[in-house]
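Example for reference:
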Amino acid sequence: MNDALRMLQRAAPVMPVAHFNSLEHAQACAELFAEAKVPTVEVTLRHPQAWQMVKIFKDCMPFAKIGVGTVINRRQMLRAADEADFVISPGFSAELSILARKTLTPYIPGIATASELMAAMNEEHRVFKCFPAAAIGGVALIKSLSAPFPEVSFCPTGGISQANYHDYLALDSVACVGGSWIVPSEEALKKDREGFLTMLKDLYSS
């Protein structure tokens, strides 16, 4: 649990939630993030070549912690334990929790309800991804959950943007947010790489 919290604190204020269209796109973003000294990246398993993308980031960013997101089964968890620094799931699974403990892998399960939160806390978790944050109540939901569960920390993800992420970070229970808006598309990289680089440097130096 402490490792998971340290991971979120390291990622603050925003952990990039990265989904790429191609290996070339992943490489270009990894080089950009390396130049900007982004401390933590979550690479989602939403592309057939996602594991190769994880390796690209590990190779390009040896100073950073590279995690695997959208982990939903045993096979993915075991591979992530070997190839990444931490694991994030969209929901909670007791089986994945057990595997994470056995492999000493920092694991951040997802929750959307108080019942899921209680089930995960029974497995000794205190650090959670709140997903899909905006769709299930956003800031108001996290405030509500924080009252009966003051010892937990959240990384809200889903529907969070440059326009509203400060609202989440203002909550004491939010260690960082997960955001895809800081991961430029291939077109955006071609149009304004320097603009994204400046934005990232400002974000992580503040």
